[in-house]
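Need the bound structure for fructose -6-phosphate, inputs here:
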Amino acid sequence: MPPQYRQAGPDNPSRKVITHVCGIVGYTGADPALPFLLEGLERLEYRGYDSAGVALVEPDGVYVEKAAGRLSSLVAIVDKSRPAHVGIGHTRWATHGPPTDDNAHPHTDCTGRIAAIHNGIIENYRELRAELQAAGHVFSSETDTEVIPHLLEARAGYSLGDAALYARQRLEGAYAFLAVSADEPDAVVAVRQASPLVLGLGETGNYLASDITALLPYTRDVMILDNGEMAVITGRDVEIRDGAGTVVERAVSHIEWTAEEASRGGYPHFMLKEIMEQPDAWSDCLRGRIGADDSILLEELGLCPGDLESVDRIQLIAAGTAYHACLIAQRWIEEWARVPVRVDVSSEFRYQRPILSPGTVVVAVSQSGETADTLAGVSLAKDAGFPVWAVTNVVGSTLAREVHRVLYTRAGPEVSVCSTKAYTTQLLVLALLADALAGVHSTEPRASVIPHLQSLPGLGAEWLSERRSLGPAITRVASSPSVFYIGRGVDYAVALEGQLKLKEISYIHAEAYPAGELKHGTLALIEQGVPVVAVMSSGALLPKVRSNIMEVRARGGSVLAVIPESLAGEMDDLAETTIPIPTTDERVAPILAALPLQLLAYDVATSLGRDVDKPRNLAKSVTVE
Ligand code: F6R
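Answer from helper R.:
Posting the output first, comments after.
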């Protein structure tokens, strides 16, 4: 039976609640805690969030106040006369599930004496929740977070630190949490498991935060917690224990960054920070979505059983960078699953009277989930009675609320107008969808793409850590009135995204062409020194692209080649500059190829002194037609 489509709702797995890139602060010391907690949360606002809350430790229990929406909603209701000296605060940015008061952090145990806040994803929360409920614990939110205070409560009689070590053993996933207990009124406990936490040493007390930005007005002396570590802080002491529970010494680092630099993680621009964050975003995007046998866990992806079987055709709609992700996905889905795919720019689709045959699923791809043209396309498809799915980064966005299924990219908030990590995580989600479709629709034997997707975070991180300056190539591109990008097959779509990056932040005219198409007109524009970026992410059709490059070279064009390391030698006689990318399976190579193209655009734009994070005439979210 075909799946029944209904609006995403609490009973629909595509609304499963996972909190992700959140802001965390904590204080214990001689001063009242609340002023620091509220100021710290305000300093973390730039990260994006959808609700906020605080917990203060008081003699008869923990006072908790929390509210969906802006921090100002919390400030309006919190009792500012509370003198507590110990507390924790949180801004939540959900990747799944509704941003409600109930789901906002902190969460408490059954007694109301323990409160916890958390950043990240607890993969085994369903099992833990069932276990704790069976033992009599009562839950009051849909979050994965709430298992933490109940796990701590389950260790009644132990110190808060020992209870936290127990919780760390039980929790699976990538997360960081802070907890307080009215039974240990001086302490804040912290656990870091792959989600950042920094400990600040102050004059009057000690601090914890997910991000140095929150601490800077109070202290510049910090200790960074490592993965697997647990810390117990009081106003006077700090104790850090490693995975085995052994106390570890940690050197104090003095931070020289300004607050603005700190909010960008020390990078000069959000765009560079977000480029560098991609390997982590890729890990987050894949986390919990792959089964032991390399199968895709459809419900974790946001789909329901039976969704894929009835898909005969896919219509992808999107704008800008998201449209380029769709062009790549079209190749993947058609090639791997043999399901026909049509891609339209949303602003065209909405006025085209598209012919959608029965069995078509419309998939709208949008980072913000607020792009007016994409939303209009979604309405059109829904009104015509078609199932509509979304790939988006923002929980609670209009798109997420409007569609029947939501596949979240989990890139975390993207601040820079120029999209980078949202784009590559869109590609990852679309690759998972293509692979899942192939599993259902294709009878052709094929090697699994999953191990290759899983190797991307490692390959990307290594490549980014070795990033070399492109020197003269940057100068050449920066001084040219026009730049051309070429590629064949899927690399044409990669090239389209590369030229958009360059255009939007450097203001240099750029165009992308299928490499074989250049000779049908555009070659007339190639003359001495004109930069041509040739994208060969996997080396597919390499001899053909080499011929096209020769045509460019014969007219004096200056070629910059993006090519796998193993094939870089092929460009020795042709390219002025070669940027080798890691050699990997050709199906996932387009994701890696995005990195050098983003960095090329970034380096050119900064060399020209452009306002990289806020390019002229552009907005992060295009909510007008
Ligand atoms: C380019 C960029 C834009 C967006 C486009 C769609 O870097 O960010 O091209 O991709 O405006 O936005 P979303 O994905 O929010 O629908």
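Comments: Residues 421-441 form the longest helix (21 residues). The pocket of fructose -6-phosphate is lined by residues 319-322, 366-368, 371, 374, 418-419, 500, 504, 621-622 (CB under 6 Å).
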